[in-house]
Amino acid sequence: MKKYVAEFIGTLVLVVLGCGTAMLVGCDAAAGGGYILTALAFGLVIVGMAYCVGNISGCHINPAVSLGVLMSGGMSVKEFVGYVVSQCLGALGGAGLLAAIFGLGGVKDMTGIAGFGANGLAGVNGSVVAGLLVEIVLTFIFVMTILGVTSKKAGHGSFGGLVIGLTLTLVHILGIGLTGTSVNPARSFGPALVAAFAGNAQPMACLWVFIVGPLVGAALAAVTYKTLESSK
Predict the structure, then answer these.
(1) End-to-end CA distance of the chain
(2) Is the dihedral angle over the CA atoms 76, 221, 148, 178 positive or is it negative?
């Protein structure tokens, strides 16, 4: 149960600080500042949470990461289900907190719509295929890094959280202007659902892209890494 609580907290913090930053500063690639701040926010949350709850749950805070760990033999199916449920509830709770902060506090949402940092396909001109490809590739890179860094053979020790956080920042730098960068089904689910309750159904229409894409990317990463590691 402690692992599930840790995953709930970690995912909630990820959504509040990552998506909250996106709402506050905007993600306009042309302006640049808000774009980079959002990428850094997501990456730095992972660094912080890795050293906060990493020793309790491994700090997956992402169903795609949990799938990669499951396929690599690092957890049971029962644990995987518990992790995913906890992550989705955490993301929902985080998005709910953002709705309270931005709504009750009268804070201006710089994204221009009540999307609560939800993902979309505007950057790829609404192309589902392009969106899926972006999410598969970016998640593949992210999960491959996590599996490599956390491998017992790697020996990265206490620097693992920093490497993973910097990698998430990196994939956001490319992905924000394309899909908003999900690489995390829970992070997409929470804001999309809260946005729908707030009257903006647009994120829900393409939510499946940000569930399928990351999960496919994570599965490919797990198979690839396991094959490469076993061939040493």
Answers:
(1) 36
(2) negative
The span from the CA of 20 to the CA of 28, in Å, is 15
Tokens representing 2 are: 């402690």
Give the separation between CA 52 and CA 59, rounded to whole angstroms. 8
pLDDT tens digit string along 36-84? 999 999 999 999 999 998 889 989 999 999 999 999 999 999 999 999 9
Both tokens of 218, joined, read 């994570």
Dump pLDDT digits (tens) for 174-201: 999 999 999 999 999 999 999 998 888 8
Concatenate the DSSP letters of all residues of 21-89 into one string.
HHHHH---TTT-HHHHHHHHHHHHHHHHHHHHTHHHH----SHHHHHHHHHTTSS-HHHHHHHHHHHHH
**Tokens for 90?**
């955490």
pTM above 0.70, yes or no: yes
> Is residue 90 a contact partner of residue 9, using CB atoms and an 8 Å limit?
yes
Number of H helices, E strands in the chain: 11, 0
SS (H, E, C) 141-154: HHHHHHHHHHCCCC
